[in-house]
Amino acid sequence: TIADRSEFGDWVLEQEETSNRTKAYDAIQQYDGILKKAGRKAHFLGIVDTDGAIVARDLDIKNMYKEKLPFARNVPVALKGKISTDIWNWKNRMMRSAAAPIFVNEGVAGAVVIAYDITSAEARMDKDQFGTEVALYLAKTIRASSLTHSAEGTNEDATSVTALNSAVLGTEDAPGSRALAEGKPSEIFNIKVRGEDYLAITGPLPTAAKRDDMGFVVLASVTKAMAPISASQARSGPTCGAIQTTSKGLRYTAPPRS
Prior knowledge:
Elements: H1 7-10, H2 17-37, E1 44-48, E2 54-57, H3 74-78, E3 84-90, E4 93-104, E5 107-117, H4 120-130, E6 133-138, E7 141-145, H5 158-169, H6 175-182, E8 189-193, E9 196-204, E10 214-221, H7 222-225, H8 231-236, E11 242-246, E12 249-253
Antiparallel strand pairs: 1-2, 1-5, 3-4, 4-5, 6-7, 6-10, 8-9, 9-10, 11-12
């Protein structure tokens, strides 16, 4: 893990406060440069002490000094010696985060904390994994989705996102609102987006700590599944994929191909 890098523990050995903070900041800047060169620069990268207070972070050495991250439920877990992930709601931003303990002389001396904004690019990666359209929402508003103007496009379709948001979260009785209130995924429901019929499921976003403000939607296109097919596809059986809930979460079974 990044916390295993020697420079992330060196700051602890500095007794003088300014030297201590400078060492921590230098370690962050060094790793931040590595991430930037790899095209994976984080939106937050910092070191916290054993009280969870920031020693230094990536913006500048003074930024957020001694502040805590009360919304970061993975930080206390890391300070107990375990790597932990979480989805943050920070300053109205939805972020994926990981925290890893820094061990010095076999004891936990603090933690490295890293976080990335959740974006439509990540939603498209989830789409590639699940084989369905994906949307993620925070505080009753969709923050990222795989819905684009075309199949191969990368620009999020704002009109489709607005329609989906209204259908899933627009009222207290909407599927997403009910799923968050009940703390479990919805039943499969029908929805129409940009003239296309979908089967969908929505529910709370699975995280280490239970959240009641974050959720997901996955949508399987019925319109595409019912499109005209070739004779060989017809002989191969049903063409409509299936969304299922399993003990490990959601699973989409793609339609058979010829």
